[in-house]
């Protein structure tokens, strides 16, 4: 669970600058109070009353140094110089010491934390992304970072200095008339305590609202991602209704629960503040009429106490803003505290510390491998398999039999519960994960295309590939067959803001991209499952050219894709039940034959 402490830790790196700038801003707020005090003293001089003792001594000392007599005119001159220093001289300094640092800290912290968030995104376990959609994750991070950035300058530059200002005011009033100071202190503490306790309750409601908003955003993002399905099932109206209901629910919470609460609080605060200001006026006037305080003190007390009460509203407004943002900041920290993937510790982020470079022949041994996503449900059991270098091995089996899971273990997205996987005789668990994964390449059913040129996408895994290498990979993967149809050839922008590639074209791009990293092990994860016959055929031809050049593992539902594999491994309920080539397995009256017959003739044998 994240807490307030985590919000403080967000700025920990800038602690010293933070303490300095908060102290400086607070000092400026207190210095500001010199003006009403000096004005009060000027009034005393003008009305023939004496200066305060301390000030009189200061004027006398200054007069002695200047070789002057401390006349009323000289006192006025000293007071004007003081006012000049704390107003005009201070003016150009304050923004540099206050505003500059507050924003610098907030902006630097945002850079740091955005880096951390990106690192987090890159190191969370892969199953996190199965359970959380991109809209929800992106929304949570963006809101959390933005709210931290806006909050810091307000709290460090305004909220805390204002509290110090109020303390300074209290000290001045105390030096003038203690009864007014007591009234002032009690009213202040009362207003702030009541306000903050109410804000605490509003924060809880804000948290509910934040969750509602996250769900709405998440669904909107799903609609965008799955728009084809929405349209195909003609569910526009129901999606619209669902989102409208959610927005109405949000509005109801924000308007009648949260906003109502803030307005009610503001009303109570204002009324109470005005009662207090009036009470101070009555008390101060009473003390002046009775000759207990001077006219100058009357003006000073009234001016600074109304200054103090006028600060109450901004202080509690800042508290309100903080309360509104609190839950999204906390939810950001909850995201940041999510446990990392098992591979996270060994992922290197520093290009200056490159991971070791491996080169394997591609011999793979699965030794007595067992695995389950949860302990009570084994998905793979006692897998024993040997894959020779340059061999092409197909994994087939019914849906849910564990084919993809085996690949996930090979890629080290998960660690096996029992047994191990050896590459060239070395346990993959002992290898540097980045160095090891660089020797693997995988072509998924859905090939991701990044926004950029086709060339950028091809060289994604190997940015230093030469154009000759790119062309060679494109020839093998049959990318060259469609490249001339693209307006700028290799330099055509594809992806989000560019030309849309078809499923088959994306697959071929995926294969060429995989080939360009020159992997020792190439994996096709249902690469042809969603393609039409012609595209499938093109991919099969590409695969045929790759066959024998490196260890290749093919997961396939369509058995036509795996017919030419050196070895076909049939999985059933997480266990290997048959191994052999196409002809051998057809002779065997087993699952492969049944699946094959089903696909060829549509009938079970
Ligand atoms: N992240 C996960 N968490 C929990 N269970 C999972 C997860 N991924 C897969 N499974 C379960 O593990 C089992 C094997 O799934 P796997 O994806 O490996 O099968 P598959 O043979 O590749 O299936 P398909 O051919 O349909 O892709 C299934 O019962 C599936 O529900």
User: Helix count?
Assistant: 20
Looking at how many chains there are and whether they match, the oligomeric state comes to: single chain
Global Rg = 36 Å
Any idea what the CATH architecture of the largest domain is?
Up-down Bundle
Low-confidence segments, ≥5 residues, pLDDT <50?
none
Structural class: alpha/beta
Number of strands: 12
Q: Which CATH first-tier class of the largest domain would you pick? A: Mainly Alpha
- Overall mean pLDDT stands at 87
CATH superfamily of the largest domain: ABC transporter type 1, transmembrane domain
> What percent strand?
5-15%
- How widely separated are the two ends? 57 Å
Overall tally of domains: 2
Written overview of the protein:
It is a single chain. The chain has 605 residues and is an alpha/beta fold. It folds into 2 domains: 333 residues, Up-down Bundle (ABC transporter transmembrane region fold), CATH 1.20.1560; 130 residues, P-loop containing nucleotide triphosphate hydrolases (Rossmann fold, 3-Layer(aba) Sandwich), CATH 3.40.50. The strands form 3 sheets. The chain has a 6-stranded mixed sheet with strand order 6-9-10-3-11-12, sandwiched between helices. A 4-stranded antiparallel sheet has the order 2-1-4-5, covered by helices on one side. A two-stranded antiparallel ribbon has the order 7-8. Helix 3 packs antiparallel against helix 5, helix 7 runs antiparallel to helix 11 and helix 10 runs antiparallel to helix 11. The longest helix is centred in the middle third of the chain and has 54 residues. 32% of the residues are buried. The mean pLDDT is 87. The structure holds adenosine-5'-triphosphate. Keywords: ATP-binding, Membrane, Nucleotide-binding, Transmembrane, Transmembrane helix, Transport. It is a multi-pass membrane protein. Pfam families: ABC_membrane, ABC_tran. It comes from Tumidithrix elongata BACA0141.
